[in-house]
Amino acid sequence: MEIRNKANRIRLFTLKTPQMRAFHFSWFAFHICFFGWFGIAPLMAVVRDDLGLTKTQIGNTIIASVAITVIVRLAIGVLCDRIGPRRAYTWLLCLGSLPVMSIALVDSFEAFFLARLAIGAIGASFVITQYHTSIMFAPNVVGTANATSAGWGNLGGGTTQILMPLIFSGLLMLGVNEALGWRLAMVVPGVVLFLCGIAYYVFTQDAPDGNFDELRARGELPPASGDHGMGRSFVTAAKDIRVWALFVVYAACFGVELTIHNIAAIYYFDNFDLTLATAGLIAGLFGLMNLFARTLGGVFSDLFARNGGLKGRVRWLFIAMLCEGVALMFFSQMQVLALAIAIMLVFSLFVQMAEGATFGIVPFVNKKALGAVAGIVGAGGNAGAVAAGFLFRSESLSYQQGLFYLGVAVVIAALCTLVVRFSPEVEAEETAAYRDAAGNSGSGALSLR
């Protein structure tokens, strides 16, 4: 059965409708997750000295922070199909807050590694965000809704780079030493994560017409699948070659973004002789592009679909991926700080537009297994970050060399978009649904009211 009464407009400045409450709470929850997930990254220069970490050990913790997310993302999408995004998000936020706060207690590399591994689970929040907006918004705006909610969530990667050093500096001004300061700084996002989880449960609902259990009681949604049904949903998605093509594509865009979030501050700190606060500020600019860049990716996906249908969405994804790879290769060769920042911003624009373009396609691959598809593709982002992490843990490979090789890999990954095709019947059905939703939207799809 189809989810009914999806919104065909995005009314940014309202919380009156369940669609817009889901939109705003989902992006904000994902935004806050970045503070727990990558809050330690801009403080790594201090942590490195406090715990005596080598470059290889730092690289291993970077891999740990994104590796566990691959597994959790695969599971969380199917879980959303079963219990709904509202309860899934609440559990993830509340349980995820515990390892974020407990990292303050570590005193060795091994403990720090395990803490970052556990914290990585909250990265699965992205899948719930995309799932929730996918079932709340109609085909004419779903690309924009998915891209904007994810983009404003990803914006947390930028604000984290800027605010965590400021929180750390504030603690130092209060007389706390550096070894204790970075630990206390990580307690802050942990507390906020827990409170956000409670708010998500209280103020949101699963679908436009109610929560999943209510819809099932009224016969408007199929009964919740048991473990066998959940496995069948996952297998159905896993058998589709298009899902794995998008897995690779997302590995080459969001995986690259995660990698940059992990290394940007220490990269600028070491290569351009900057202070920790300045390096964090510059690194934060990369994530701050999410304020509009990922949204643009979704907007263009919806615009390409207006005339080109689903083929248009795929065509736009290829363009964004190709430009991302070329820009990353140029960024890796910059030796002057001003040029490095400028090219980084161009690269950031395309990597985030590619992410938005990817999830402009995901809702149309298999509607009956939406959670499983979103989970697998979302996991691709973290799988890409794990693979990229090995480039930056080697003592013999410089960050510049690693970034260049990463750019080449992105260009190659762009070719996977050629595999993403839809049958003429699906193309015709979605084109009709798009025109119907666009015709009923009244005015523009994106509204400030």
TrEMBL record:
Residue ranges crossing the lipid bilayer per the database entry: 21-46, 58-76, 88-106, 152-174, 180-203, 243-268, 274-293, 314-331, 337-362, 369-391, 403-420
Keywords of this entry: Membrane, Nitrate assimilation, Transmembrane, Transmembrane helix
Bilayer topology annotation: Multi-pass membrane protein
One term under GO cellular component: membrane
Residue ranges annotated for the Major facilitator superfamily (MFS) profile domain, each copy included: 22-425
Gene Ontology BP terms: nitrate assimilation
InterPro entries: MFS, MFS_dom, MFS_trans_sf, NO3_transporter
Subcellular localization, as worded in the UniProt entry: Membrane
GO MF annotations, alphabetized: nitrate transmembrane transporter activity
Protein family per UniProt: Belongs to the major facilitator superfamily. Nitrate/nitrite porter (TC 2.A.1.8) family.
Protein name (Swiss-Prot/TrEMBL): MFS transporter, NNP family, nitrate/nitrite transporter
